[in-house]
Specification:
Length: about 240
Amino acid sequence: MNTAASQPDLVGLSERLGYTFRDELLLRRAMAHRSWCAEFGGEPSNERLEFLGDAVLGWVIADVAYRWPQELPEGKLTDLRKSVVNANALAEVAEGIDLGSCLLLGRGEDLAGGRHKPSILSDALEAVLGAVYLDGGVDAVRALIDRLFTQPLVTAAARLDRLDYKTLLQEISARLYDVAPVYVLADSGPDHAKHFEATAFIAGRPLGAGEGRSKKVAEQRAAEQACAVLLAESS
């Protein structure tokens, strides 16, 4: 693991991104978390790049969603965009390119598991997109977004009617039993790497179980399983 004072492997990260920077300092800045800048100073953090990247990503994904082969109504277009432009989804993409190993973090944040925190990973990924936009322009950043987000978008589009399983489960449960779902949570692991397990109960029956690195993900997976059970029972 890189320490906060070590040099991140920017060459390796560039290879995983599939983009070669003309100005590598932009990529280094994208890796600089404010905790590192506060301890070591002398360099700006990635926050301005994150601001830019967030806007660029939102625009590109909105454009892609609008041009989707299906004629999706506005509400579904919004759902499709939200399915990939959120901290958890962005963090998963960041983990897929091992972005965490290249982060410049302060000692405290590093020891607290900052390399695996969805908020830090998602912000850093948006900063990378901002850096690519500045370095290579619209075509370069759009190509990168296509590489990183096409599969998540395809997966999300196939599940548009079922993206929010907790809401769907609540509707089904109310319709069939006139009760709300109850979720029981358990967690394990150290604070910086928690693992959550959720069980969805309907009218006292455990109908779904799920796990994940956040409560939200675990509950959504439990709700998805419970929805499948209830729909099968009522068919």
